[in-house]
Design goal:
- The chain is an alpha+beta fold.
- It folds into 2 domains: 15-181, no CATH class; 187-232, no CATH class.
- 34% of the residues lie in helices and 18% in strands.
- The chain has 6 helices and 7 strands.
- The protein has helices at residues 15-34, 97-119, 144-147, 171-182, 195-205, 224-232, and strands at 49-51, 60-62, 69-71, 76-80, 84-91, 125-136, 156-164.
- A 5-stranded mixed β-sheet has the order 1-4-5-6-7, sandwiched between helices.
């Protein structure tokens, strides 16, 4: 297969899942010891108590209009005694212009979580947020002995907060678009600037795609269509 180990829709390396899991443990451990979430959450206001979230098999709904199952696993759900629930998603990344480019995707992700949470009875959503854990990569002389030890070294993270508006009305149009694509007799034409389209077609065709991805070298002339013509001859 000519795509090698490059697969479509693979945005983040697996190590970030491990860091995300560790971030949840940090929040829970701090709460169990001090009775409150870490102080860096205060930038979001008074959020409440972290509650155990159900796994993906229970944290899901079926949209009645499109018959599409919507599911996921929120990083953190906090319940306030009077306001309702706040859903936070952790991102192990620097809050940069590139991350801002991904904000629309994260906004949809969090709003889907909010819709599901309300529909399965966890509570009324009063807020959503992104919590970026930025790696601190500078080492001062005073920190050297603390961070660099005999059998390991430590990496610090600095939290940065970004609020996301709860707008569940943005989700249904996207589900209708998904249903429209799924009901097509053939896949829609690829975007020439879409790396995922390029990699997905490479997997489906078992050869170079029939279009030129603007970010890749031009495919060989003997592609899917040319092979098909040879077979017809």
């Amino acid at each position: 297969m000519m795509c090698g180990d490059r697969l479509p829709f693979q945005i983040f390396p697996g190590i970030f899942s491990s860091i995300g899991s560790y971030s949840k443990k940090v929040t829970l451990s701090h709460f169990l010891q001090y009775g409150r979430v870490p102080m860096w959450f205060d930038g979001f206001g008074e959020l409440g108590t972290p509650i155990p979230g159900p796994g993906w098999s229970k944290f899901q709904i079926i949209d009645p209009e499109t018959n599409i199952r919507l599911t996921g696993v929120p990083d953190e759900i906090l319940r306030h005694t009077t306001r309702g629930i706040w859903i936070v998603d952790y991102k192990t990344a620097r809050l940069t212009d590139n991350q801002d480019f991904l904000t629309p995707m994260y906004k949809v992700q969090l709003n889907c979580y909010g819709m599901i949470a309300q529909n399965i009875g966890i509570g009324s959503v009063y807020g959503l947020g992104l919590l970026y854990y930025e790696p601190v990569t500078d080492i001062t002389t005073n920190e050297r002995d603390l961070l660099i030890q005999r059998d390991r070294f430590l990496l610090e993270f600095a939290p940065k907060l970004k609020q996301v508006t709860f707008e569940p009305n943005i989700v249904p149009p996207l589900l209708r678009q998904v249903r429209e694509i799924c009901d097509c007799s053939d896949s829609p034409p690829p975007r020439l600037d879409c790396r995922d389209c390029y990699l997905l077609e490479t997997i489906i065709r078992g050869a170079r795609p029939s279009f030129v991805f603007l970010g890749e070298p031009a495919p060989q002339k003997v592609g899917f269509h040319s092979r098909k013509k040879k077979a017809e001859k």
